[in-house]
Write a structure and sequence with these properties.
single chain, alpha+beta, two-stranded antiparallel sheet, 11 strands, 40% helix
């Protein structure tokens, strides 16, 4: 752990850090569990230029923390120290059982019942370390096509990961999205809900972390959960019983997953290319 960050936290929190234990899942930032004289904390450390990314995460956690039914790490401090930036949070201990029940489905539904009048978010933020644009938009199909898929296609084209013949027009994407996604009001979504970003907390509630929030279609979260994991039958039933929303069908899930697959193509390269092309051929280029 960076010594300057360690010293700054000790000074600002009036504590001593007794141990710093590296945590998994830190592809973008270094993540540590801190055992301190005031209890266990968690810190994410990145380079100075990524301070806006950590500030956006702090804002998102503060918003998610207003939802009583779920557990989220509470942000404490987000600052720059010399050549580093960091986000200090409470540490959420995992429950001994990681079986997801109908109660956890109901808790996820509590997130998706937070509504807004338009799609988007109060500011742009990040998906991993890629910019995520969140302009206020009247329709989901436009927001999906213009603010989610188009920026990732441009990155892929600019870096030679896709060529122009493999990329559908944005108008076609918006048109097909309007036909496939169910009608919905803008719902608060986590935005990056793969299996590493949620677990059963020590208090038995669903804990979510590392958000990329926006008011979007709830299929975005369901799609990501099913892309790198799955949803238990009981969790699905609890979700459906507590939300006035059609559970996303296979086509809506596939279109939701396209966004995350494009993000992974741009972050990690060729291994995600065939999946991206397959979805675009099936829904947009056929």
């Amino acid at each position: 752990m960076n010594q300057n960050v360690k010293n700054h936290i000790e000074q600002q929190q009036d504590c001593k850090i007794l141990a710093s234990l590296p945590l998994g899942g830190g592809d973008i930032s270094e993540v540590y569990k801190l055992q301190t004289t005031i209890g266990d904390l968690c810190v994410k450390i990145n380079q100075l230029s990524n301070l806006p990314m950590l500030q956006a995460e702090k804002t998102a956690l503060q918003e998610l923390g207003k939802i009583a039914e779920i557990t989220v790490p509470k942000p404490i401090l987000c600052e720059a120290v010399h050549e580093h930036s960091f986000l200090l949070m409470t540490f959420v201990e995992k429950h001994a059982s990681q079986i997801f029940t109908s109660e956890h489905g109901a808790q996820l539904a509590a997130l998706h019942t937070q509504e807004n009048s338009r799609f988007g978010w109060e500011s742009d933020n990040f998906i991993a370390n890629l910019a995520q644009h969140n302009p206020w938009t009247d329709t989901w199909s436009e927001f999906y096509a213009v603010s989610r898929i188009e920026p990732q296609l441009k990155i892929a084209l600019d870096h030679g990961r896709l060529n122009a013949s493999q990329i559908p027009s944005i108008d076609i994407i918006a048109q097909r999205a309007a036909n496939i996604f169910s009608d919905t009001r803008p719902k608060l979504t986590h935005g990056d809900l793969w299996s590493g970003n949620y677990f059963v907390a020590h208090d038995g509630r669903l804990c979510i972390l590392d958000p990329a929030v926006s008011y979007s279609h709830p299929a975005i979260d369901i799609g990501m959960m099913k892309l790198f994991g799955n949803i238990s039958k009981q969790m699905k039933l609890g979700y459906e019983d507590n939300i006035n929303e059609k559970f996303p069908d296979q086509d809506a899930v596939a279109l939701s997953q396209l966004y995350f697959l494009l993000v992974h193509l741009n972050l990690f390269g060729e291994s995600y290319k065939s999946s991206c092309i397959g979805i675009m051929k099936r829904y947009f280029l056929g």
